[in-house]
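Q: Hi! New to this. If I give you a protein sequence and the SMILES for adenosine-5'-triphosphate, can you show me the bound structure?
A: Yes, paste them in.
Q: Okay, here:
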Amino acid sequence: MTGLVVDSLSFARGGRTILDGVSFAMQAGEMVALLGPNGAGKTTLLRLVLRLLRPRSGRVLLDGRAIAGMTRRVLATHLAYVPQGHGVVFPYRVRDVVALGRLAGGAMLAPVVPAADREAAAEAMARLAIGHLADRSYAALSGGERQAVLIARALAQGARLLVLDEPETGLDYGQQQRLSGLLRGLAGEGYGILATTHDPLRAARNFSRAILMREGRLVADGPAAEMLSAQAIAGLYGFTAVSAPPA
Ligand SMILES: Nc1ncnc2c1ncn2[C@@H]1O[C@H](COP(=O)(O)OP(=O)(O)OP(=O)(O)O)[C@@H](O)[C@H]1O
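A: Thanks. Here is the predicted structure of the protein with adenosine-5'-triphosphate bound:
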């Protein structure tokens, strides 16, 4: 698995500091939840890790190598992005959406999808138990099915570190539970999972570790259950914790 190091990362836009000296490292099999109020800088941090933005200062290392010097193809062998499952423009078949993951590594430039890429896509779909959706239109899927397809696309890419942006958004309870089980299973196989979330209670249950951010700074980092106590959550989001009334 790919080890990720985020080293003193800062980012600014229009003279305003959006991320200020964020540092952490994560290893194989870790499930790291990134939490904080709206505007804390979570998405900006993910975009820097994915090299979709350039930091003002600091660096991101994958297996000890700075991502700034990597080709897109090499970066894609380490890191895969699972965006939120919205915004469907074309009614692609599910098997084609998953096979698109192979493009990130520079494969599949031919007009016909090479057999190896088709196999990788089929394997990823089988892994997520969505083989039966292969010929369905991605646009016609439920939110949970789309999320599974996007994770399959990331697996087809071959990367071992998955970066997910609010993966449970829009999913019903059952689909959230399935997603959590799936991510835990992947972590058990040695995938690294880094996900933003707005649900501290689920994060405390399902993630091994939580990183809390506020106003562009990392304010806490540790075991999820410990980091996400009622008091810590109240402090992070700026409200007063109320205890349950006596029965
Ligand atoms: N391109 C940009 N130009 C100017 N400001 C930006 C830009 N992108 C983000 N910001 C600002 O940076 C801050 C952090 O935004 P970011 O989207 O990273 O927060 P977030 O923690 O992901 O928030 P949310 O929980 O609402 O998704 C916000 O104040 C946002 O307005």
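A: Residues 13-14, 18, 36, 38-44 surround adenosine-5'-triphosphate (CB under 6 Å). Let me know if you'd like me to explain how to read the tokens.
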